[in-house]
């Protein structure tokens, strides 16, 4: 019996009866506190009847074991490479100890919260309960406030919360409390209705494999991407077994009519997919095909058009995740105070092995420092479960280089200047994707408007072993440049890159040029989906968590990008951030994919319909 259990029994004796009301069995102590990000201001006390969907992360039984499995099945030199875990395997590894659950249940019961009010994640490692602020305030011995972002959105949060001491080791985090994470879409719209009509050279299959003849920097098309990254001649064979997915948040969704117009123009043979891709709705997420309000769906349309334009005929699922700003706190509603990213994660983790997609693209992120470390860590560990189950999880590296100029300040109250890395890209268990532009050669994406491929080093997550060699080599080249403004021993990102500048899209029925790592991420996901297609056809396992393979072997099948930089944070140094160099760099990672080399490296042989002469 552990010390905590004894402590609890002592408490029971002291209070006399199990069901006796609110009597903390150990004194409360602060469990977690976090600085409020500088863009948020406390404006009022929270209405005590405002409801929050509270999520309690119970300590998992054995994350270390899960991590070991993850690295074994993802390491190309390990005998278990490719032997991804099943839903059940993962569940067993992450489910909490009965003892931890029992302690949490007792504490909730003491606070008048009955088991019937609770719902659980698949592995029971998260408990969800909807409660008014007033009750949460006594449960967590805290005080919630209304905070307003400088963009006008509001949310209900607190900067610090407490738990009875005996529960500290059994609960990783409870949210929404002190997390101000609000990841935003990484699509930068440039021009709406600015080009039109002249796609003739793209509409038909182009016999000229010369990229220069097909690609134009202002108006990147599926034909260009497929030629540049060499998927053009590949005939997919595994569309029945292979799947790909993208995630929509914050009211964004994917417009079928726009997608259809786009595909008719740029990938006619795929046009029907505009009406056949599936929505998987989570927490009442939007699938609205109604008339567009403001600039909604630019991100959603870019994502779906890019994925189908390149990855077709791989079947696509679009996760439509509800919960979005503006976060107007009001009495008796739960709207928008929740954590949509957790909703998504728990939904996919509960999906059975035959439903789970092999790749997922997410073009949303936020500054790492808006997330309390305990919460970031737990979300990252949950993302590792997806990797262990064989899902390649891609996140955009951000659109502001090392940080948004003028905003490069640490959040810890000191006001010190610092590069501002983006989460979840900083999570070591995901693959982060940067952006390039131009052709012959491709260079780091950069526009004078400030858009620059995001990159940097985590302040929370240490550098994983798989990237030791690559990152150390880079740091050596870098010398002391800007050394005071980032943590050189943190997880460095991105891992790879792809085109992300001036994509031709159709949005709101019109031709629109969109840029961003938001474009690069679904593009990479679609290409890896085609690699998986060849692997499945060759009787091999799919790639799953890419990074250990990528840093050991896969990088050889990528074009190194050596020109440009993660420009940003003009208040720091020369404002150019990290430069791209020969080899891996925190701007474009190992660079952009070469499909033929990828599948050759993986020992499979694709089926090709053209004169490529690949064997
Ligand atoms: C080769 O593939 C392209 C693109 O999928 C297609 O348009 C074309 O008709 C195919 N050509 C042959 C000879 O099969
Ligand atoms: C591709 O086209 C460009 C411009 O037309 C030309 O300069 C280049 O030599 C061509 N490259 C190849 C490999 O044919
Ligand atoms: C779901 O969203 C729709 C459209 O925004 C809204 O009308 C409806 O009330 C919502 N349903 C729930 C259960 O929140
Ligand atoms: C969807 O596309 C149709 C046709 O272009 C358009 O009328 C509608 O406004 C679009 N809706 C959204 C939400 O983008
Ligand atoms: C969407 O298209 C419609 C019809 O062309 C137009 O009236 C509307 O202003 C557009 N919406 C936006 C936000 O551009
Ligand atoms: C919430 O309810 C309280 C008490 O009934 C009331 O004083 C307050 O004005 C209400 N707040 C909002 C935002 O409706
Ligand atoms: C805040 O962060 C900066 C940069 O990492 C560091 O130099 C400073 O010591 C920190 N201050 C506090 C109060 O934690
Ligand atoms: C740098 O990161 C490492 C690994 O995450 C951490 O242990 C160390 O405390 C960090 N150093 C500073 C100065 O923040």
Question: What do you see in this structure?
Answer:
The protein is of the alpha+beta class. It has 17 helices and 27 strands. The strands form 8 sheets. Strands 12, 13, 14, 15, 17, 19, 20 and 23 form an 8-stranded mixed β-sheet that branches. Strands 4-5-3-9 form a 4-stranded antiparallel β-sheet. Helix 2 (63-74) crosses helix 13, helix 9 crosses helix 11 (298-311) and helix 11 (298-311) runs parallel beside helix 15. The protein is globular and about 70 Å long. Residues 1-24, 195-205, 330-336 and 611-615 have low confidence and may be disordered. The structure holds 2-acetamido-2-deoxy-beta-D-glucopyranose (8 copies).
How would you summarize this macromolecular structure in one to three sentences?
27% of the residues lie in helices and 20% in strands. By secondary structure, it is of the alpha+beta class.
Write the layout of secondary structure elements.
Elements: H1 3-15, E1 28-33, E2 40-45, E3 51-58, H2 63-74, H3 87-94, H4 98-110, E4 119-120, E5 126-132, H5 133-139, E6 145-149, E7 154-157, E8 160-164, E9 171-175, E10 184-185, E11 188-192, H6 200-203, H7 211-214, H8 222-228, E12 244-248, H9 256-266, H10 273-276, E13 278-282, H11 298-311, E14 316-321, H12 340-349, E15 359-362, E16 364-367, H13 373-388, E17 392-396, E18 422-423, E19 431-437, E20 443-444, E21 456-462, H14 468-478, E22 490-493, E23 496-499, E24 503-507, E25 510-515, H15 517-537, H16 547-552, E26 558-559, E27 592-593, H17 595-601
One 2-acetamido-2-deoxy-beta-D-glucopyranose binds at residues 292, 294, 508-509.
């Amino acid at each position: 019996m552990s010390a905590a259990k004894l402590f609890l029994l002592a408490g029971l004796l002291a209070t006399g009866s199990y069901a006796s009301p609110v009597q903390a069995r150990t004194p409360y102590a602060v469990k977690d506190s976090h600085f409020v990000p500088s863009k948020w201001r406390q404006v009022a006390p929270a209405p005590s009847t405002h409801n929050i969907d509270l999520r309690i992360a119970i300590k998992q039984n054995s994350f270390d074991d899960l991590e070991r499995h993850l690295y074994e099945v993802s390491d190309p030199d390990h005998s278990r490479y490719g032997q991804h875990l099943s839903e059940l395997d993962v569940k067993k590894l992450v489910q909490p100890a009965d003892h931890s659950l029992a302690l949490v249940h007792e504490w909730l019961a003491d606070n008048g919260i009955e088991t019937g009010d609770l719902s659980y994640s698949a592995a029971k490692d998260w408990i969800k309960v909807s409660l008014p602020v007033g009750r949460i305030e006594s449960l967590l011995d805290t005080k919630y406030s209304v905070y307003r972002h400088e963009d006008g959105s509001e949310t209900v949060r607190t900067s610090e919360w407490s738990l009875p001491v005996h529960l500290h080791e059994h609960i990783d985090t409870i949210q929404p409390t002190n997390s101000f994470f609000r990841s935003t879409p990484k699509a930068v719209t440039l021009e709406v209705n600015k080009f039109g009509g002249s796609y003739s050279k793209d509409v038909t299959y182009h016999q000229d494999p010369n990229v220069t003849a097909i690609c134009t920097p202002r108006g990147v098309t599926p034909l260009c991407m497929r030629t540049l990254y060499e998927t053009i001649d590949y005939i997919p064979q595994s569309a029945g077994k292979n799947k790909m997915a993208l995630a929509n948040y914050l009211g964004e969704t994917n417009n079928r009519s726009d997608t259809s117009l786009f595909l008719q123009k740029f990938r006619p043979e795929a046009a029907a997919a505009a009406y056949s891709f599936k929505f998987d709705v989570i927490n009442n997420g939007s699938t609205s095909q109604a008339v567009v309000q403001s600039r909604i769906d630019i991100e959603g349309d870019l994502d779906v058009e890019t994925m189908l334009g390149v990855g077709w005929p791989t079947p696509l699922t679009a996760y439509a995740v509800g919960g979005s700003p503006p976060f107007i706190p009001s009495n008796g509603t739960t709207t928008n105070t929740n954590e949509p990213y957790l909703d998504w994660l728990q939904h996919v983790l509960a999906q059975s092995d035959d439903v789970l997609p092999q790749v997922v693209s997410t073009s949303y992120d936020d500054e790492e420092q808006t997330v309390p470390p305990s919460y970031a860590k737990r979300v990252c560990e949950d993302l590792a479960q997806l990797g262990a189950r064989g899902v390649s999880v891609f996140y955009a590296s951000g659109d502001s280089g090392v940080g948004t100029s003028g905003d490069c300040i640490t959040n810890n109250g000191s006001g010190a200047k610092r590069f501002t890395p983006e989460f979840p890209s900083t999570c070591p268990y995901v693959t982060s994707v940067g952006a390039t532009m131009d052709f012959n050669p491709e260079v780091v994406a950069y526009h004078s408007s400030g858009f620059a491929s995001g990159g940097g080093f985590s302040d929370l997550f240490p550098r994983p072993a798989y990237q030791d060699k690559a990152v150390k080599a880079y740091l050596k080249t870098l010398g002391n440049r800007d050394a005071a403004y980032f943590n050189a021993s943190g997880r460095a990102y991105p891992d790879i890159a792809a085109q992300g500048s001036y994509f031709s899209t159709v949005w709101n029925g019109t031709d629109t040029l969109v840029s961003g790592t938001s474009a690069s991420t679904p593009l990479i996901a679609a290409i890896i989906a085609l690699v998986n297609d060849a692997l499945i056809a060759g009787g091999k396992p799919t790639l799953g968590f890419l990074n250990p393979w990528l840093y050991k072997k896969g990088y050889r099948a990528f074009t190194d990008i050596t020109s440009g930089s993660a420009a940003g944070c003009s208040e720091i140094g020369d404002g150019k951030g990290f430069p791209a160099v020969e080899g891996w760099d925190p701007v474009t990672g190992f660079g952009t994919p070469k499909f033929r080399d990828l599948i050759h490296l993986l020992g499979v042989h694709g089926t090709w319909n053209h004169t490529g002469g690949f064997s």
